[in-house]
Design a protein that fits this description.
By secondary structure, the chain is mainly alpha-helical. Helices cover 80% and strands 0% of the residues.
Amino acid sequence: MPKASQSIKTSFVIALVIGLIISGIFIVLDPYTGFYFLNWQLPGNAAAFVFWGMLGGSTTAGLVISWLVNGLMYSVPALGVIRGIVALRRAATK
């Protein structure tokens, strides 16, 4: 049986990957949906504009920062769901 810290790390990595996939899908779909999902990307876009405006970074770096911040924001609910499923599965096996 894995240690609790390994289980949490594994759950966090899975949740982060899910969040990054969701964020990437929103970024790709924006031009095709008339920027319908733009409001859902506000945390990452705010971070990107602060980086781009204050530090004079490149647009690509701003987009990557936006993608990462949104990935972290979307991974928090996914982490909660994954940890809930793990807890339910452990309770069911006892």
